[in-house]
Amino acid sequence: MTLCKVCHVDSKKHSKKMLALHQKKQICAFCQKSGGEHSEKLWEMHKLAAEKGRYCPDHHKEEKLYPITVGFARAGIARVCSLNADPPYDKELVPIHMSCMECDLYLGSTEEDYADILDGMCLKCFREMTGQIHPWCDILPAKKATKKEVND
Question: Which pLDDT value is given to residue 121?
Fold first, then answer.
């Protein structure tokens, strides 16, 4: 028995149309994408990353989460930590990232999108795990140039 994440009713009682509608309405707290763009495994991985990032080790409690965009990066989430300072400097936004299951380095946006396929690992660890450590894996494919591109 699986429960619908929107109305908490057995998903078998929903019609296909209603289930699709409810899945699309739900937004991932970690990447702000709709539920239809995630697999079950990716949904759980993003949910776990948001829950782990919400805990502030300094204050030993869970903090509020807010959407944040740093520079030209895509939107993400950050926890708000209270500091011992005068307003408006008493709040700090700490970005939350997913980390690799093997090396504990933070994942990039592509690795976060495909975390379910890569099993929570970064591309480097995934390549090492699957034996793809040849130098040709790092070479970008060559593009044939047209005469116009050569002359420009």
Answer: 93
Q: How far apart are the first and last CA of the chain?
A: 62
Q: 23: Cβ–Cβ under 8 A, 6 or more apart, which residues?
A: 5, 34, 35, 36
Q: Are 71 and 109 in contact (CB under 8 A)?
A: no
Cα distance between residue 131 and residue 125, in whole Å = 10
Q: According to DSSP H, which parts of 5-114 are helical?
A: 16-25, 40-54, 109-113
Which strands, in side-by-side order, build the sheet including 76-82? 65-68, 76-82, 91-96
| Cα gap 150→152, rounded to integer Å | 6
Encode pLDDT of 67-97 as tens digits. Answer: 888 888 888 899 998 888 888 888 888 999 9
